[in-house]
Design a protein that fits this description.
Elements (H helix, E strand, L loop, with lengths): L18 E2 L7 E2 L2 H25 L24 H6 L15 H7 L8 H23 L15 H12 L11 H11 L14 H8 L4 H13 L10 H11 L13 H4 L3
Antiparallel strand pairs: 1-2
Length: 268
C-alpha cells in the first residue's frame, strides 16, 4: 500500500506535493532533497524489489526501471567471450573481444584503441556508471541529472562524461566522430542490452558481467584519466597501475593480480 506521506520528512498533502520513487511507486517524497537524504535507507529495499528479475536477465542492481522491462535485457553482450577467455584476454566475457595487457594500455592512454566500436561504447557507458556509483558511495556526491538524483536515466551526465573523454587527447580511438558518439549514446539508451544508462551498477555487477575481478579497477583507472585527478575516495591509481603493468610484463614473479585488487584494498 502506497504511503500518504514523504518517506523522509513524513510531511503529507496538502502541505506538500508528493512524487514517487522511479522504481518503487509506493515510496513517495516531497522533493529531491528528501529523496537524496533517504536514499541510503531506501536503496536496499529498492534494489531487492527488482533484484531477482534483473539478475535472471543479466541486469544487476536495477535502480531505474520497472521489473516488467528487465526481461528484455537477457541479450547482454557476450559475443567472443569464450575466445577471449581461452586466449587469456581481459575481460574473458561481456565484450566482443578482450585485450592483452590492459593496464599497459591504460598507462599509455590506448585502453579504448583497437577494439570493436560496440566494445568501446559499452566500456564508456560502464566507466561512467561505475564512476557515478563511486562518487555517490565514497564522496556522497550526486551527479546532476543522474539516477541517484531521481532522473529516469543517466544520458545527460553521460554526455558530459563523453565531452570530458574527448577533451583528453588520444583517449578515444582514431575513428571516433560525431556519428560514433551518437551510436554510443544510442547503445546506452537501448533497453535490450546490459550497458543501460537507465540502470545503476556496483562493483559486484561489473565483476559478474565481465568475469574479471580486476575489471572494476580498469574502469576506475580509465575514469581517473578522464577526470585528471584521484579516484573517488582520494586514491590515486598510479602506483597500482605500475604494479599491474609489471605483473603483465612478468616482472613480479609468481604474484597474482588478485592479491592487489585496489577495490578490496579500499573496501569499495
Amino acid at each position: 500500500m502506497a504511503s500518504a506521506a514523504c518517506a523522509s520528512c513524513a510531511k503529507s498533502p496538502p502541505e506538500v506535493k508528493l512524487k514517487h520513487c522511479v522504481q518503487c511507486p509506493e515510496v513517495k517524497y516531497c522533493g529531491r532533497p528528501c529523496q537524496t537524504a533517504h536514499w541510503p535507507i531506501h536503496r536496499a529495499v529498492c534494489n531487492s524489489q527488482t533484484g531477482s528479475n534483473a539478475r535472471s536477465a543479466g541486469n544487476n542492481n536495477n535502480n531505474a526501471r520497472s521489473a516488467g522491462n528487465t526481461n528484455a535485457r537477457s541479450g547482454a553482450t557476450a559475443t567472443g567471450g569464450s575466445s577471449s577467455a581461452s586466449a587469456g584476454l581481459s575481460p574473458p566475457k561481456g565484450l566482443e573481444q578482450g585485450i592483452a595487457k590492459p593496464f599497459t594500455h591504460l598507462d599509455k592512454g590506448t585502453w579504448l584503441h583497437d577494439r570493436p566500436p560496440k566494445d568501446v561504447y559499452a566500456l564508456l557507458v560502464d566507466a561512467y556508471r561505475l564512476r557515478v556509483e563511486d562518487m555517490y558511495n565514497l564522496e556522497g556526491e550526486i551527479e546532476p541529472g543522474s539516477l541517484y538524483g531521481g532522473a529516469p536515466n543517466g544520458l545527460a551526465g553521460f554526455r558530459r562524461f563523453l565531452a570530458r573523454v574527448a577533451a583528453r587527447p588520444g583517449l578515444l580511438p582514431p575513428w571516433w566522430n560525431a556519428d560514433k558518439k551518437k551510436e554510443c549514446e544510442d547503445l546506452g539508451m537501448d533497453a535490450g542490452q546490459w550497458h543501460d544508462l537507465r540502470c545503476a551498477v556496483e562493483k559486484s555487477d561489473i565483476i559478474e558481467h565481465y568475469g574479471d575481478g580486476q575489471f572494476p579497477m580498469q574502469l576506475r583507472m580509465f575514469a581517473e584519466a578522464v577526470y585528471g585527478g584521484p579516484a573517488p575516495g582520494g586514491f590515486s591509481g598510479t602506483a597500482m597501475r605500475s604494479m599491474m603493468m609489471a605483473m603483465e610484463q612478468g616482472g613480479m614473479g609468481d604474484m597474482q593480480a588478485s592479491s592487489f585488487d585496489i577495490s578490496s584494498m579500499l573496501k569499495r
